[in-house]
Amino acid sequence: MIRVLVAEDQSAVRAGLVLILRSAPDIEVAGEAADGEQAVALARELRPDVVLMDVQMPRLDGVSATRQVVAEELADVLVLTTFDLDEYVFGALRAGASGFLLKNTEAKDLIEAVRTVARGEGIVAPAVTRRLIAEFAAKPARASTADPAVLDSLTRREREVLACLGEGLSNAGVAERLDMAEATVKTHVSRLLGKLGLRSRVQAAVLAQELGVQGP
């Protein structure tokens, strides 16, 4: 079972999310939080597999809560918001969120996103991916704390995979682009995340965009 903590300040929305998640036979709602501080506290107590985190919440916003949950390695975080592209998105992804979805996501897609994040494969809403990448491309002067030297530890193939992640490609998409087996892609992703000290492929995608990593 995938244990999920739902953090959302609007009770009606939270109830709807819980209802959707409970409809999946392999997902258990471990707890509910109404604000960011409660989300962090319950994550510490319950140790869920995934925290479904709203961005705008009282007491502690979702980005700050995500940063704490990820820093303490309490769970993987899937961020939900009504905003399709703004600094909240970048903040959440930089904070270590494993995924980002819009609140108008279809129920089946939400469930599948939770499963994907629980498997360790981050996800960004398809409708957002291209705009997310375009935003980075449009702002080359965006401040980055990343040091290009971190890429020195990667093999040529790992750099190519990282570039594909930066384009928002799935494992299947990377496999097709680089003409390799999907299982091999997963291995490369796992290795490059370890070398770069990252927790999710989404963080890797953000890093690839910030450093301008180019594919083959």
UniProtKB/TrEMBL annotation:
What is an example of a GO molecular function annotated in this UniProt entry? DNA binding
Instruction: Note the CDD domains from the entry.
Output: LuxR_C_like, REC_NarL-like
PROSITE patterns per UniProt: HTH_LUXR_1, HTH_LUXR_2, RESPONSE_REGULATORY
Name the domain of life.
Bacteria
Gene3D superfamilies this protein is in?
3.40.50.2300
Q: Residue limits of the HTH luxR-type domain?
A: 147-212
The UniProt record lists the Response regulatory domain at 3-118
Record-listed 4-aspartylphosphate modification sites: 54
Q: What keywords are annotated for this sequence in UniProt?
A: DNA-binding, Phosphoprotein, Transcription, Transcription regulation
Read off the PANTHER family from this record: TRANSCRIPTIONAL REGULATORY PROTEIN NARL-RELATED, TWO-COMPONENT RESPONSE REGULATOR
Annotated protein name in UniProt? DNA-binding response regulator
